[in-house]
Amino acid sequence: MKKRFFVCSVGQPGKGYDSDNLKRIIINKAFILYENTSQKGVYNEIKPNDILLLKYQNKLIAYGLASGNHQKPLSGWNLYSPLEDWFFHDNLNTEIGVGFKGLQGYTIGGGQYGTVKEVYSSFGLAKMEEIDPTSKLLKNIKIEIMKSHKIKVMENVISLLKYKKEIILQGPPGTGKTRLAKELAKGLTVSVDKGSPLHIINEFFKNFNPEDSKVKATREEFESKLKDFYEKFPKVDLHKMTLEDYCIGTGANDSFCWWIERGLQRLGYYFPGSSRSYLIYYSKTHDQYSSHFKHSPHLSEANSIEEAMSRLAEMIAHLVKREDTSKVDQNLGVSYIIKILNSYYPEKYFPINGKVALNNLCKLLKIDRKGLSPLQMNLKVQEFFNQKKVEYKVDMKNYDFMLFLFDEFDLKGEIEVQENTIISKGETKLIQFHPAYTYEDFVRGIVVETNDDNKPEYMVVNKVLGEFAEKALKNHTANFVLIIDEINRANLPSVLGELIYALEYRYDKDDVEGTTVESMYTLKSSDSEEELEGNKLILPKNLFIIGTMNTADRSVGHIDSAIRRRFSFVDVLPRKEPVHVDAKENFEMVSSLFVKNPQEVFESEANPERSEYLSPDFRPEDVWIGHSYFLTDKKDEEAKQELKIKMKYEVVPLLNEYIKDGILINEEKVKEVINKITL
């Protein structure tokens, strides 16, 4: 609830009762009003947690936190607004206070009359500072106001981020841009309760429509793919596979391994990470068929690669014909084995084969996976699917369910289920740009690695943004925030490259061509000979970018219009609330060098007007020294000492630099301020 501020008059001067009532007010720790006072003002509007400022003989002498108001069962002075305590300007002489030039301009509604008047919070806070700047009550109110301001700023900027996806926090030095960026990232990536996974899944089965046009199109595509695969590799002929039939890497895009990895990808994603995982593959580097089965007891005994291929073909044929994994070389990997079985028996094996994904899926479905192999987990998931089909009497394929699961949950990431609800967690990464930063540092570049022959090999790899975007793409249920500190210190057009397009057109799976861009570098798997579709760059919608920019730094390059269109710019300006009480006077003096109307800006968020001491070439919003230089978490003498050090070694050098650069144009006035803040 918003806190209201009221000025309460002890009594009308010259009537002879104000002094007595002041004593009554002090003794009872309450504002007390005579019942028959004709002009009570807004006394009846005082509520608990409002602030009362006590007016006595045209001075404000004290303030306190109201706990409400009521009428005592007495006649006369019986209207009471109790307080925890009064905080006086002078506890030894409670009649001493601070002056003011009338209340009309500060009274809400503009009323001139009434014993109790509501005033603007800015006026109330300023007078509390003058009456007693050290009270715990004032400290708590300032904290409350700062939190309220922070929440308001956070809500506004987060709404903007969700709409725009990338923003730049810009402002002069010392306004807390990086701190704000971290707080925004924390707010965006906080763990979110996504609800009961079983409830979400049940709703999917309940509302599934097999007649939906997208469902029909998916089925038609999948059934067509399987038909083509069966025609190319029928079960009865698998034992006849040759090197050319089996091996990926030749570029023909019709081998058994190509179909398992690429051709049937949409029916259940399988990616080995390396062609070597297939044990036999075609090496472009050596322009020949190569093997990777040193540890395979069956294949390593072969006298030639052709004989090894024959043994491998027999092994796969046995697996498909018998569904027996006991004779399959485990070097092939359980995911590959599951993918083969699912491809030939799509109604019996579930179209998810990755160990991590299966583990996560068992968590979601509340399947006890203790002691289960990945293949056994796969069969349990298929069993769950079959039960749900019967329960909801729905015509659904297991790949319909599989596609839903990957859309709804982060199966490849880290899933956390607490008390039957799934928790989605995001991630934040902070980097800092500098003049030497390049596209190859930020997006994608070439590194040198040693291959199996102990020879240097040049590899294209994703860098900071590429890696982070890939994480966000895999976990679309959470938010990922990349903070780029000092974003304007790098050559942005060069660093971003073709991402300038991707920033505006975030990835949409229904418009892949229109929402991806091609990089100048093509990715390969870290140790694979097979080229991926790695020239594509994708920025998902759950990846947010927050840049920070010091507007006073003229040594860095400007941001061109094309990039400006992609970002929203948010001004982060100096604020008075967090400034330490012992530094407020210094802060105001320094602020007056840049801004003609600092108090108006602080109190009503008016636009800053250029001071006469500031060059016409500069906006105060760009160079005004921020509040961070006037903060300390120390107390008493330690606080004063730290603030003196900040003035001498941080603020003064900056002011002198501004004189030298022609930003501040009245050297005499600046020197005067410097002398005062270093006393």
Automatic annotation (TrEMBL):
It comes from the Bacteria. InterPro entries: AAA+_ATPase, ATPase_dyneun-rel_AAA, Methyl-DNA_Rec/Restrict_Enz, P-loop_NTPase. Residues 163-577 form the AAA+ ATPase domain. Coiled coil: none annotated. Pfam families: AAA_5 (PF07728). This is AAA family ATPase. The lineage of its organism: Bacteria, Pseudomonadati, Bacteroidota, Cytophagia, Cytophagales.
